[in-house]
Amino acid sequence: MQELADPCLGWVRLWLKADDNKPRKLRHSLDGVRRVLTFGGAYSNHIRAVAAAGRERDIETIGVIRGEEHLPLNPSLAYAAACGMRLTYLDRAAYRRKDTPEVLDRLRERWGAVTILPEGGSNAAAVRGCAELPGEIAQPYDVICCPVGTGGTLAGLSAGLAEGRRAIGFAVLKGAGFLEGEVARLQREAYGRVLDNWELQLGYHFGGYARTTPALRAFADERGLERIYVAKMLWGVLDLVRQGAFAPGTRIVAVVTGQPSIPVASWAA
Ligand SMILES: Cc1ncc(COP(=O)(O)O)c(C=O)c1O
Fold this sequence. Notes:
Order of helices and strands: EEHEHEHEHHEHEHEHEHHEH
Distance between the termini: 19 Å
Bound molecules: pyridoxal-5'-phosphate
Strand order of the largest sheet: 1-2-10-7-8-9
């Protein structure tokens, strides 16, 4: 854990906890699985993580990629292929229907008996994996923050919190109101109930998934932050601090999912 010394923080204290959510999400999802099929875009972190976990745990992996095949493979897909993942492609229209029985049946026909993981890997097992993180943070804190793509990480962090603590998720997609329902659905699936200790911030998407603005780009580049998830969350946290959303003395932990560490020194400068 690294503490940030940003003058904007005032009396609020903010620590960064670098923790890759992908392996956590897969930790229980792949138990007992022999062959897994999952979905993602051509630069999907989830596709890479499934491919790596498959290699490590000797599980056959199939990646269903949105769009057309482009050769040579980009570094992300080349890595997945090098891990032994078999890649197949769905055009964008079919990809949008990837959760329908029609598309799933077609994939099952082609690939045989497979366990299917949703895009982003968010299911009840993934939520239970992410719920293990809050208990691993030894120091006291009041609020835990994370970026939100599909909602599994937030659903899990919230579920793992001790009494009195709360979780705030920062959606990186535009029009992500549906994620309220998704986080609730995932908690219901994992635990049979929805917790009331979390909230979603929908105003820090900067135009949508993987979109950015000159201001966000500058914020990220000056501090060495990954732009798609980490910079949006940290911008959001600092903005809420500036708005006075946290009482003086509040101790916040921001989970940095998208990069192994943050050069904190560059931040203070
Ligand atoms: C680096 C990173 N951070 C955060 C998330 C968001 O996690 P979730 O999809 O569980 O909301 C993702 C997406 O999987 C991610 O790749």
